[in-house]
Write a structure and sequence with these properties.
By secondary structure, the chain is mainly beta. The protein has a domain of 144 residues: Methylamine Dehydrogenase, Chain H. Helices cover 4% and strands 37% of the residues. The strands form 8 sheets. A 5-stranded antiparallel beta sheet has the order 10-11-12-13-18, with no helix packed on it. A 5-stranded antiparallel beta sheet has the order 14-15-16-19-17, with no helix packed on it.
Length: 425
């Protein structure tokens, strides 16, 4: 009570002397409108458009997956479980699920994947549902009966089957959404990822450090291969692998497997920074040790002579697939340019940051690289920097390059947290 009277007394006294008794309000800095993003319809390396198109606008929620694209649209997934289909002019064709839909799916966290012909878009939720949409955004089917767990890992999609990963189980569906067979890794990993060879052999990596090999024939040279006991068949007419084998290589495999174009070697990376090259007999062909975790899928060039490895040690490595020797390295950062446009040999030290996304290659072997330092780069096959661009945010997901025959030019799609860029290339 004394405090109240004291406060009132001070206020009355202050009014005589011209003081104010209003609560203290800190001085707010003036709002700064970010400069508009300059676009150009055809100029090489310039954004053709940025979505949302109005300066200052962004997606209402954070983008949580890499963009995927066909000849008509690029598809973007946001954290509020909406998928946007955006055409090559930068306009939204549709958003799914529609507002009129009852019992809308929630927690869509799986990387959207297109069928090889680009006509079907597959989505998965953390509540064990998978959806197949056509290019108009209309559902073809919904499947949840055969899916026992969360769908958050990118599935392998071939011309006939979808290999979905759910907390240690690979479930195989056909294009009608019907389960064919499943394989339990038994190591109870937090994720599993799959690659498929031309002969039908499946390679699966899991987060407990195992590489699994599944085949419908006895694996050559592998006397320890045995009939799989953890295969469940749902369709007697479908063909499921008969033989399986697994081998542990590190404490935690952190990437999907990548097959050499000749399908004679599989590559993957681990939390300890090591990259493995494994032959069909599950023997180590070579290993490479980086100074940071390998969190992005290693990628090969078209002829299979080079393996590109993005590392958390802030480097991109180009390795010879024959022996794992370094051909060159590239640090992601801001490179200064002189008046002639020539880039400096080294980036500004404070700008060098982690590379968390796999590289993307185009038809003429250019490499597209991004990192969380706001910069995206284009390199020649020999690692020479030919272009860089500063984005409005981190680049955590792989860019997507598409040559579109209708507009007769290539487009590089890049996402930051709340924006989609379409660059001319």
């Amino acid at each position: 009570m004394r405090f109240v009277f004291l406060t009132i007394g001070l206020c009355l006294t202050g009014m005589v002397w011209g003081w104010s008794c209003r609560p203290y309000a800190p001085v707010q800095p003036p709002s700064v409108t970010p400069p508009p993003i300059v676009t150009h319809p055809t100029k090489f390396g310039m954004p053709r458009w940025v979505f949302p198109r109005r300066s200052g606008l962004r997606f209402p929620e954070v983008i949580i997956a890499a963009p995927v694209a066909n000849q008509n649209h690029v598809y973007v997934l946001t954290s509020d479980s909406y998928v946007y289909a955006i055409d090559y002019k930068g306009d939204v064709s549709w958003r799914w699920p529609p507002e009129s839909m009852k019992n809308k799916p929630t927690q869509i966290r799986m990387q959207p994947v297109l069928s090889p012909d680009g006509q079907i878009l597959f989505l998965g939720t953390e509540r064990n549902y998978m959806y197949a949409l056509n290019t108009a955004g209309q559902p073809i089917w919904k499947e949840g009966t055969w899916l026992p767990g969360s769908l958050s890992v990118t599935p392998l999609v071939t011309d006939k089957y979808i290999y979905a990963s759910m907390q240690g189980t690979i479930k195989v569906l056909d294009y009608a959404g019907k389960a064919q067979w499943s394989y339990a890794t038994t190591s109870r990993p937090t994720f599993s990822t799959t690659a498929r060879a031309l002969d039908g052999t499946l390679y699966i990596t899991d987060s407990n450090g195992y590489l699994h090999v599944l085949s419908d024939r006895l694996l050559p040279g592998l006397s320890k291969s045995q009939e799989c006991r953890n295969i469940t068949r749902y369709n007697t007419l479908g063909q499921a692998p008969r033989y399986c084998l697994r081998k542990k290589y590190c404490a935690n495999i952190t990437t999907p497997p990548t097959l050499h174009p000749n399908h004679n070697t599989v590559y993957f990376g681990c939390q300890n920074g090591k990259v493995f090259a494994i032959n069909p007999k599950l023997e180590e062909q070579w290993t490479f040790q980086s100074k940071g975790p390998i969190l992005a899928q290693p990628m090969t060039n078209v002829d299979g002579s080079t393996l590109y490895v993005s590392s958390d040690d802030k480097n991109l490595y180009a390795l010879q697939t024959s022996d794992g020797e370094e051909s060159w390295t590239f640090k992601s950062g801001h490179y200064k340019q002189d008046q002639e446009g020539k880039f400096s040999e080294e980036p500004v030290e404070s700008s060098v940051m982690y590379i968390k996304a796999p590289v993307t290659l185009d038809s003429i072997r250019r490499l597209y690289v991004g990192s969380i330092n706001h910069y995206t780069h284009v390199l020649t096959p020999k690692g020479k920097l030919i272009w860089q661009y500063k984005l409005d945010g981190w680049m955590e997901y792989a860019p997507r390059y598409v040559y579109n025959s209708s507009i007769r030019r290539g487009t590089l799609f890049v996402v930051t947290a709340r924006r989609l860029y379409a660059f001319n290339f």
